[in-house]
Amino acid sequence: MTKVAVFGAGSWGTAFSLVLADGGADVTLWARREEVCTTINEQHENTDYLPGIALPPSISATHDPERALAGAEMMVLAVPSQTLRGNLVDWAQFIPDDVVMVSLMKGVELGTTKRMSEVIAEVTGAGPERIAVVSGPNLSHEIAMREPAASVIACTDESVARWVQATCHSAAFRPYTSVDVLGCELGGAYKNVVALSVGMAVGLGFGDNTTASVITRGLAETARLAMALGANPLTLMGLAGLGDLVATCSSPLSRNRTFGEKLGKGMTTEEIYASTRQVAEGAKSCASLLDLANATGVDAPIAQHVKAVVDGTMTAPEMMSAFIARDTKAETD
Description:
Blueprint: E1 3-7, H1 11-22, E2 26-30, H2 34-43, E3 59-62, H3 65-69, E4 74-77, H4 84-91, E5 100-103, H5 116-124, E6 131-135, H6 140-144, E7 149-154, H7 158-168, E8 173-178, H8 181-203, H9 208-228, H10 233-237, H11 239-250, H12 255-264, H13 269-275, H14 281-296, H15 301-311, H16 316-325
Parallel strand pairs: 1-2, 1-4, 2-3, 4-5, 5-6, 7-8
Antiparallel strand pairs: 6-7
Helix pairs in contact: 4-5, 8-9, 8-11, 8-12, 8-14, 9-11, 14-15, 15-16
């Protein structure tokens, strides 16, 4: 059995632990709070994030990072993207020199505009052959319910991508491989920002024409930035691009769409943060992605306007009006 340490016992970290266990791995789940570990070990359930979902005996939990990593061949990272750097600094001394690190995170670091794979490399010194990312239409509750789903495992070393693929391939989870780490990460991060804008449209009471228009223009914006940075355009047409975008923008299970709906109904960012423990990555990454677009010379109106609403300098109705009022142009411009 492949020994895997999963760091982050939220919804996605726990759901992916189930995927790994179903694929035959021995999983140790690191949780920030000891009471979560106790519940998982004694009740075989994460009652805080996935209540009612039974966890198999091959998943255990610990609050001790050294214990979680002891003998691990793979380290899966599923913490909020803006906390990754600080957490890795704390964990670095325990990370084996040959362990493969797999990012489940979909964000871009504030201030540095670094993708999660870049943060991992910078903090740990690991080469690209030891860093992989998972991205696709993977809503955590549906994954935990073992509903059929597909995803992409990206690593610049294709043999490593295939090894991770084999480790998490199960009866309900079908992973594909890619070497386009950049494209997968940007697709995963940008779709959260687009989902916020779609959620605002829903919160304002608009229908399918509006949301389909925002989704499509969001994909174009994502592709512009990704291609300018060197991504393969086909990645944005696949599971890590269009697939993830559709799932996140369309599902009421999406925390980013839900966050956007609340903004559309008039709640402030601070009020939404106070009402939930779930993290909507797009509310943070919109600033990072806008900085990245500006530095690259790419027009990013959705990221720009979403950031303004999140910051409280624009309302959701004003954002929608601003989209319509933009200068007309050819669709491919």
